[in-house]
Amino acid sequence: MSLPHHRLIAWQRADDLFVQLHYLTWQKFPPRDRFELGGQIRRAAYPVAANLVEGNARHGQRDQLRFFNIAAASLAEAGYGIHAAYRLGYFSDSRYATLALLIVAAL
């Protein structure tokens, strides 16, 4: 089933980013940070795609832009979470570089 937002490249990238971050925060983070930092990263990454979906479903341009702006702000927050996790040693240099590219690609 293809929904209208499935055609949005930004949504596709945000969806990929959320799925990767969801798995990585459960697999790579130590138990104490799976729920704290990992949870915060997951909570920041999910609304990126969700707000793109909601904005795409809105009919007024002003309303659409409001949701797209919220998505961009959530993306920035997820980017910082990835940066913090890297600084704490949870991601390798190459994994961090890949995730950083996903953040930039979703902009």
Most strands sheet? none
Mean pLDDT: 93
Poorly predicted parts = none
CATH structural class: Mainly Alpha
Task: Return the CATH topology.
Answer: de novo design (two linked rop proteins)
Distance between the termini: 26 Å
Q: Any overview of this molecule?
A:
The chain has 107 residues and is mostly helical. The chain has one domain (4-106): Up-down Bundle (de novo design (two linked rop proteins)). The chain is 80% helix and 0% strand. It is built from 5 helices and no strands. Helix 1 packs antiparallel against helix 3, helix 3 (37-57) packs antiparallel against helix 4 and helix 4 (61-87) runs antiparallel to helix 5 (93-106). The longest helix is centred in the C-terminal third of the chain and has 27 residues, at 61-87. The mean pLDDT is 93.
